[in-house]
């Protein structure tokens, strides 16, 4: 049997680079074995000792043992190894534009990154963006409009969802978290990211997979997260449930959530809690519901 890819990520709620790496696998149906380490501890550098010469997340190891520690390099290598997965547009012009966009996002927008670090656990009413952040937003508007004009795409940047959109997914989260000003068309693009199945799953896991990181805390007034409103599920005690096997693993039920007056079981607390965070993000659970 062919060995799967290994993928190293940091905290889902905060690691924007890790979000990119994971989307390059999940959104395009490429399986991997996940290795997670908490930021601002010795967990990540310790884990990465197994992935020389990598220093950051995301990092992957290919089935033949090649370590690739940069998200743009990961995108290109996965596209080469999985040409039918659709990471880049098939049409040459759209593919070229997609690569331009991904490269600029990979290397730029430092003011936006610095003033508005990714935090999927909160949304603020205002973050008082300085002019440098507003300039970055204006540049986003310019290159997104250019891509839509050149490719005729109605929703994503270059036709179907591609690696170019993956690279802007963390930007969409920053706009959602910090309530940054955009044109209606650009904001519709952000909303598409927030509603994307893979992103919703990542955020649901990010809400429950560790304590808050104090580095990302801000004192701005908060608002409700602007993405799709989750169904009101909650964790409950006991193991009595409609199903006897976890919808993800098939293992015996040990933890239960309640939704719409019904009880559903899972094989561990994380399976339950990620589902309770956003039930509609998980097709296996929705099949039960």
Automatic annotation (TrEMBL):
Superkingdom per UniProt: Bacteria
TM ranges: none
Gene3D superfamilies attached to this UniProt entry: 1.20.1050.10, Glutaredoxin (3.40.30.10)
Q: What Pfam families does its record include?
A: GST_N_2 (PF13409)
Query: Which residue numbers delimit the GST N-terminal domain?
Result: 5-86
Protein's name according to its UniProt entry: Glutathione S-transferase
Sorted UniProt keywords: Transferase
Q: Which SUPFAM superfamilies match?
A: GST C-terminal domain-like, Thioredoxin-like
Annotated signal peptide: none
Q: Which GO terms describe its molecular function?
A: transferase activity
Q: Sorted alphabetically, which InterPro entries does this protein's record hold?
A: Glutathione-S-Trfase_C_sf (IPR036282), Glutathione_S-Trfase_N (IPR004045), Thioredoxin-like_sf (IPR036249)
